[in-house]
Amino acid sequence: MEPVNNRFGGGVSSTVLFPWVAxxxxxxxxxxxxxxxxxAIVPLLLVTFxxxxxxxxxxxxxxxFTITRxxxxxxxxxxxxxxxxxxxxxxxxxxxxxxxxxxFCAVFGALSFSLVxxxxxxxxxxxxxxxxxxGAYFFLRFLIRDREDVRRTIKVLALISVVTAVAMIREHLTxxxxxxxxxxxxxSSVREGSIRAQGAFEVYLLAGAxxxxxxxxxxxxxxxxxxxxxxxxGMVGASIMTFTTGSSTPLSGYxxxxxxxxLWPLRKRMRLIRWGLVVALVAxxxxxxxxxxxxxxxxxxxxxxxxxxxxxxxxxxIRHFNDWWLLGAKDYNTWGWDMWDTSNQYVSYALKGGLVTxxxxxxxISRSFGRLGTAMKRVHQRRSExxxxxxxxxxxxxxxxxxxxxxxxxxxxxxxxLLAIVSVATSEAIGHDPVQIHVQVPAVASTSPQLPISVxxxxxxx
Length: 462
Prior knowledge:
- The protein is mostly helical and 462 residues long.
- It has one domain.
- Helix content is 61%, strand content 5%.
- The chain is built from 15 helices and 6 strands.
- The strands form 3 sheets. A two-stranded antiparallel ribbon has the order 1-2. It has a two-stranded antiparallel ribbon with strand order 3-4.
- Strand 3 and strand 4 form a beta hairpin.
- The protein starts with 18 loop residues before the first helix and ends with a strand.
């Protein structure tokens, strides 16, 4: 049954915060505000992914501030203070097409949801969600500015995967979650005899998605050569995180990332591969008795997956297009059994924000792939090209994972971090290309023997 009382972010009426979490949060806030810019990302990521966030909330004037929301808020404070104190650009490479698409997606989503419900609680809820998304995204865009920042970010994520993997192995051995000891979530989730470890994440699906989507980035870090130990440990940790969740969604994302990396030799023929995939899907739809998206129900790597539910989410979303296309749907929970559980990122954006919001979300993905493709055409070093390809594989891993889970709080930060890295890597790659300047010298008569150019010559300066 849908938890209706929490639909607009309701819940406890007073602050609930473990003492040790409060101390860690305060230390992180101080470090985020006062550490040098390049190191501020370390406490942000460590607290986001290694501190249990579910149920931990600070209530101020009836407003709920989760841990990730508090971090995003103080990230905005750091961002604004840097703008006041420095004339340097806040966003490396400037405000690009991915930034615009992400901003419009968040704004349209919040506006559409509020208009559908026409309640103050819904507006407050959506403003909070917009703060979570936009605060995290633009703060990470500010923090990750060059290749060294990219390397440092991936190293921190590798460390997080190692620590979390150890805790998740312990969950499998003891059925107890170390991060949630003493709470109702202290006992690991079990489905059909399969333990689904989750670490400090809200649900096991998010823990698995974190590990699965991190693998291509860790492979790039390993290939860089200077961080082989942490990259190797990170790959082991990320793989353990993926497999110990006992869920098909993380495994699908893991396989997608590896598949993307394996296509490296065919990188010059990706246009043909993309169109071949489209033709294959159309052909399958013509010969299958069920619609082609029914293939989702066939994805079950563990024997205990709810893949049929994912199929029904997509199916009902398509069949009820007229109900949600304008601003989203209000009563989609009545469309079928458990339809309130929108464990599909695409369906979630559609039902809660309408067609425009869904298109903006797809545009974020499309623009990211587009920038990677453009940058790959312009770089001439295999090392830079490999970084861009690994980022594309990580992005593809997220795209596949979106079919089985909706990102919230922690994984939203991981998603924003990848988009920030994509923006930096593509801006860096495009910026390294020689820029041609064409100067047309007017045809003026000259008899000077020292003039180094002929009359009417066009100069090409690189």
